[in-house]
Batch of 2 targets.
Target 1
Amino acid sequence: MTSEPTPAPARSDFIRDIVAADVRAGRAKTVVTRFPPEPNGYLHIGHAKSICLNFGIAAEFGGRCHLRFDDTNPVKEEQEYIDAIEADVRWLGFDWGEHLYYASDYFEQLFAWAVTLIEQGLAYVDDLTADGIREYRGTLTEPGRNSPWRDRLVAESLDLFARMRAGEFPNGARVVRARIDMAAPNINLRDPVIYRIVHATHPRTGDAWCVYPTYDFAHGQSDAIEGITHSICTLEFEVHRPLYDWLIENLPVPSTPHQYEFARLNLTHTVLSKRVLLRLVNEGHVRGWDDPRMPTISGARRRGYPAEGLRDFAAMIGVAKADAVVEFGQLEYAVRGVLNRTSQRRFGVLDPMKVVIENYPAGQTDMMTVVNNPEDPAAGTREVEFGRELWIERDDFMEEPAPKFFRLSPGREVRLRNAFFITCTGVVKDAEGRVTELRATYDPATRGGDSPDGRRPKATLHWLSAAHAVPAEVRLYDHLFTDPFPGSDGRDLFESINPASETILTGALVEPDLAGLAAGETVQFERLGYFCADRDTTTARPVFNRTMTLKDTWAKVQAKG
Ligand code: ATP
Ligand code: MG
């Protein structure tokens, strides 16, 4: 019998309600959404929320979701990021079919529309510098002032725009601005820049262009070209919506997309911003975009988070209009639910201590039958070697046990999981008095971990046969930032980088069959957590990342609250 995955709960949120109403009223025959990343970094878990929302809605309403790269800034964009983004969306379990687009595919059309605006007197070429534009812009409380170039002749603007395109001017010499209202209370409407000069090689269009549309000019028009019915984005774009609507009204676009904003995902103890993540990579705080500590999708994958866990998390947090910060523990809770169902159990010892079973014959090996996954009977059982010399976890022993310590100590009996009861009979110490080895006896009548006379030791330990265990490197992870809200209230987030976010253990030991585990596969080391084989694994030495411990911090907090 296989355990069935729990069905996703029927979802409802304010965006799905809008889409459903549009479908019912016939305003949207086919629901078309899009996920529009800028390829200036790797995707993070916040993007996963947006991906699940956009692809999820398209699937639920029988529509389609486009993957569109908003590649309007060649200075920051790279092919490496384009490839990584595609791989991450696919890995998350979504498929855009033939609907892969690039804003750069529309450069010719966007240029023509900027010309249209100039011809209508709705845009002009401005010779102010970036500083000048800022000075004239005004503030939240004061209106802006018109640029001295605002009323230049249409023909002059058209000529200058053509010469900008021809490469006559250096970066920043001139821009094209929409001619809206310098006194508008919304600063986004104070003659926003729609085209700028950038002499840079674009990952897709190469050197064909040296003028590029701004994000704000490209975004809505790209949606209109693609027939997007529901342009879903995060709240920071809400104040840009009047500009997008103004452009759509004033241009001969083939469709009129509507934008809906939802609250971005924030997570405690980490930062969901490509700009900050890029700094973490470039300044060497982590070993790359897919470092297991990174909140990127590729980092989560390398850490051992299954895609299903990220999708479950997105469903669990839902979609709302109010900004909030989600506990990192809630992400772990969602992922742990999947791992608990799907991961096989194995024995691993992180900090080994030798135990010699004095009444067990030297040279003998017994096979113990161990259940692979109590949550999934179909995973079956395996045979694990047991011998006279074993490894246990060093902190499962105390020579002078503290009051609530019920594990191994001299004279005390414990259960070795799925094997035998053992009793500690003595210790061996080094010159400094440190315990280096334990002596014990076992009770052959307790085979399998049960006693015929009903004896029940207070502790059950994991263990490995010393003759069979294989060495492994194990990497333990903690939060990337010690501050639950890094960078908030003006604090420098780089100062709260956790110096102990990674601990590398080189002396760990694992069951022999784990030497062959493929990179990306996750198992549970009994009592220690979930561990994922890292791509640094070699035939000589497996490397494991601890995905997370077994302890659930989040559900406990919920129960108390
Ligand atoms: P960042 O600030 O990390 O660079 P971004 O918004 O600039 O993010 P884009 O590539 O423009 O990155 O984002 C693509 C889509 O993902 C956008 O629609 C954006 O609204 C959405 N998105 C980005 N960050 C989050 C987040 N934290 N939560 C939910 N959606 C997000
Ligand atoms: Mg952005």
Target 2
Amino acid sequence: MDTDVSYVIDPQPIPALPVRGVEGLFPVHRIYCVGRNYADHAIEMGHDPSREPPFFFQKNPDNLLLTGEFAYPDATKDVHYEIEMVVALAKGGRDIPVERALECVYGYGVGLDMTRRDLQGEMKKLGRPWEIGKAFEHSAPCSELVPASAIGHPTNAAVWLDVNGQRRQSGDVNQMIWKVPEMIAYLSGLFELRPGDLIMTGTPAGVGAVQRGDVMHGVVEGVGELTVRVV
Ligand code: MN
């Protein structure tokens, strides 16, 4: 980066995630999210879970939330949790072959794809973009990352979410319709992937609404956990 550059207004900080056991932060470039990647969730949302091509939307990097306190957002009465494994890329590229895709992965984390379901539903009905339902402030609570060099690449790992101590979502990353290497390869045919990109890999069944005061506790076994209170 050019250190001599001067800006006409102050630039915003680079969104970044802590890494377990490592000094320094992981700087986030983009956040890609896959839709309907677990068959039981596709069915609960009223869709056919057959293996149609994956589809993606994005959240903004500065939608990441690290404080553990999720402020109930504006303009909605129906905010839903979606627990997801997060993939963090150390390398990018275009047209990355499936068999080389895992070479791009820096590590993994646990994230929540918080969703204004009422607004998303209206946008679906009107055939409009999902952004107002998905890419709002603090819509991406995320855990620290853990390097793949420490844990490998999870292919069998239980994923669950409790709200106020009650199990709401339960699955396993082995139930993903599109596996991590396939998602990286597919995305790299649509976008130039970059170091710092995150991929939220989809959610198992059981999504639902939260209210102020609720505490969400999500786990991806062997990767990490995340506790977020709705305030
Ligand atoms: Mn999601």
